[in-house]
Structures are given as C-alpha cells and as structure tokens.
Specification:
Layout lengths: L1 H16 L17 H5 L3 E4 L3 E5 L3 E4 L2 E3 L3 E5 L4 E4 L5 H9 L23 H15 L2 E3 L3 H8 L15 H13 L28 E14 L5 E14 L4 E4 L18 E3 L3 E3 L2 H16 L1
Parallel strand pairs: 3-8, 8-11
Antiparallel strand pairs: 1-6, 2-5, 3-4, 7-12, 8-9, 9-10
C-alpha cells in the first residue's frame, strides 16, 4: 500500500511539473554528494512576465554610432536564481576542495558576505564545482535573465544619439558618469541593500555580478532592427548599479578591464539552477519500483 502511494505521488508530481508554473520540486532529492551545501542555496523562482531591456553591446547604423535597441523580453520558461550572491564562505569551500582559485587576502570570508574580487573564469569554475557537489546544474545567468530577475533595479544604459552630432552623445555619457556618486567599496552583509519586487537581495548594491553574456558589436538597419552581430567572449557583461564590460580574467575592475565609465567596486556573482523536474521524477520512480523487487 505504501509503495502504491509513493508511485501515485511520483506521477502526481509529473503531472504537476507539466504545467507552465510548476517548477518547485514536490519531492526533494537526497542522494547528492553534499546536501548541506545545496540546501544552503536560497533560490527564488520567477515565472511569467516581461521587462524592458536594452540590448547589450555597441551598435552602428549606416556606419555611425547608434543606440542599442530597447526591446521587451519575457521568460520562455521559469527561472530559478539565487536570492543573494554566492557567499565568500561557500566560495572558500570550493577553494579548500582544490577546485577554485583562492580569494584575495582582503576579502572577508563569511557565510553572510558575498564572494568578491572574482573573475568570470572564477565564477564559472565555482558553478561547475557546485554542480558536481550538489547534483544540480548551476550556471551564470545570461544578461537577459539577470535583467528579468532584477526587474525595476535594471538600469537602462541607453543614451539618445544625434546622428549629425556625435559629440552630444559623448557629452551625455560624460555627464551620466559624473553624476554617479562614489560608493563604499567594502562589502556588507546580505540584505543590506534590500530586496527587489522579485525577492532578490542586494541587486544594484556595491557588488556587480558576472553574467554569461558576451560583449557584442552590431549593426542596425534604418528601422533600428539588428542585422548583424559579432560577439567577443573574452569580454563579459557585468550588471550592478550600471552595466559594464569586463575582460573575463579580471578580478578587480579598478585595475583594468572596464570598457567605459566608472568601474565596478566589486565583482561577484549569483547563479541560476537548471531544474529538470522530469529527470527527478524518473529517478524517483526508478528508486520506488526498484524497491519492489
């Protein structure tokens, strides 16, 4: 009778997972290498919606500088993303395991402080290590995903451009950078910068976050549509108080790697987890049916 109930539960989960909004697992997996580490990752699950998004990169139209397109983006599927940035304590566990490069000496190692002074390569390496340790699949968010999760905290970096007077664009960019007040580079405990409407903490605080997206140079047609794009994946998009483009091996943006403008105070990251719920159900069913024999 108990086995029959478990099978019914498994197939009920499968039916629930088929719906467009059902992404939270009803049955938690416990057969992973490091349950404690996985369970410490606070995850926010975002569903349907849309947000205004300025495409990342530099664009031209008829050979002249042009504003990047402003588009509406929506989620093709639910997005599970960390509530706060990866902590320095969790990153240190990766270091202790021999899978990550050591943090700089000035970084405070604590469970409630973000890991900072990390490069894109460091962040990507941590995601691979965490995936192995937990049995989940972690990765950096794309810039579009980060913008969606950031919601009202996402900053549009577009500048109106007069095709007949490019100097106005340079002046507008200079004025925007000059208006940015200096911030305290010291890290703070999680939640110090509050939560956005999606429940994510510290978006737009003094930690800029690596994304998976590459820097793009593109061309637009007369209607403002993208007709060509060339990606430079040696430079990645980081998001925070403003968008910046940083070389992937840079750990301290103030030491170089920022394409334009005021450099980020700290480079950190939060991760997306890919949740293949059908795979979970198949494993659950296999365990239950295996126990019958």
């Amino acid at each position: 009778m108990l086995i029959a109930f478990k099978l019914k539960l498994a197939f009920a989960c499968a039916a629930g997972f088929a719906g467009p909004l059902a992404v939270a697992p009803l049955v938690m997996e416990r057969g992973v290498a490091d349950i404690e580490l996985r369970d410490r990752q606070a995850i926010v699950e975002l569903h349907r919606g849309s947000v205004s998004y300025r495409v990342n990169g530099d664009f031209t139209r008829a050979g002249k500088q042009a504003a990047a397109p402003l588009v509406q983006i929506s989620l093709a599927r639910p997005l599970a993303i960390m509530k706060h940035q990866v902590s320095s304590a969790d990153y240190q566990r990766c270091v202790d395991d021999g899978a990550c490069r050591a943090l700089d000496r000035g970084v405070v190692v604590a469970a409630d402080r973000p890991a900072v002074q990390v490069s894109w390569q460091d962040a990507n390496g941590f995601a691979a290590w965490l995936s192995r340790k937990t049995g989940e699949s972690y990765r950096l968010p794309t810039d579009k995903e980060w913008a969606f999760a950031a919601g009202s905290k996402f900053k549009d970096d577009g500048i109106a451009i007069d095709d007949n007077d490019p100097s106005k664009r340079w002046i507008a960019r200079y004025e925007r950078e000059a208006d940015r007040a200096p911030s305290d580079p010291g890290t703070r405990t999680f939640g110090s910068f509050g939560s956005n409407e999606n429940g994510l903490q510290d978006i737009g605080g003094n930690v800029w976050e690596w994304t998976a997206s590459c820097f793009v140079r593109g061309a637009l047609d007369d209607a403002g549509r993208i007709i060509s794009e060339n990606s430079n994946c040696g430079v990645r998009v980081v998001e925070g108080q403003h968008r910046a483009y940083i070389t992937d091996f840079i750990r301290d943006a103030k030491a170089g790697g920022c394409a334009v403008g005021v450099p980020p105070d700290n480079l950190g990251f939060r991760l997306v987890v890919e949740r293949n719920e059908w795979a979970r159900v198949r494993r659950l069913v296999a365990r239950v049916t295996g126990s019958i024999s």
